[in-house]
Write a structure and sequence with these properties.
Bound molecules: heme C
Radius of gyration: 27 Å
Number of helices: 5
Number of strands: 0
């Protein structure tokens, strides 16, 4: 085999390989783009505690549920909410404040839906709308309910 032939063979092989790996890269990229869009369409990622739920607490709840004046002993400030909610017993009923994957058994959800007395609790529905405090919008309520149904992760 002459040197020239060896060279041609090598170029031929490289082109074939490069072409192959380019095609592979392209399909891997397409696949990950597809996976991403499928995830967001199906909502598999679900609401996150820090990005979705905490802003709702900040807007509607922390005025009365902050470290200094934690009504019912519940602190909903950034960085405190998870440890105050998930798997923690409510002070007004036998339920947990958040029972992962189970809104019926979560006192927080009952307080927000107004079913807290039937669930064995007491007091008013939340947020307490006295003194100009705003009621929750449907989409904000949904964020919290979806987060509980998703297991109440510290995400
Ligand atoms: C204006 C003040 C005020 C606001 C705003 C408020 N709360 Fe409350 N919260 C209270 C008071 C007072 C209690 C205890 C008396 C009662 O339940 O009526 C309480 C009790 C609770 C309890 C019961 C805790 C337990 O251990 O049993 C939960 C859960 C709760 N609040 C969640 C929230 C959430 C979530 C928000 C925001 C969406 C919110 N609250 C907004 C004043 C407030």
């Amino acid at each position: 085999m002459s040197l020239h032939t060896i060279y041609l063979h090598t170029v031929h092989l490289l082109t074939k390989r490069t072409g192959f790996s380019l095609a592979l890269l392209l399909s891997v990229n397409l696949l990950s783009v597809n996976l991403l869009s499928v995830n967001s369409i199906a909502g598999d990622l679900g609401p996150s505690l820090s990005f979705d739920v905490q802003p709702v607490f900040d807007t509607y709840c922390v005025q009365c549920h902050m470290l200094e004046v934690a009504q019912a002993g519940l602190v909903l400030e950034n960085g405190e909410a998870y440890a105050n909610l998930v798997g923690v017993k409510s002070t007004q009923s036998d339920l947990l404040r958040v029972s992962p994957d189970n809104t019926e058994a979560s006192y927080l959800a009952n307080k927000l839906l107004g079913t807290h007395v039937e669930a064995g609790g007491s007091g008013s529905g939340m947020p307490l709308t006295e003194m100009g405090h705003r009621p929750l919008k449907d989409q904000d309520l949904k964020v919290i309910i979806d987060w509980i149904n998703q297991g109440g992760p510290d995400s």
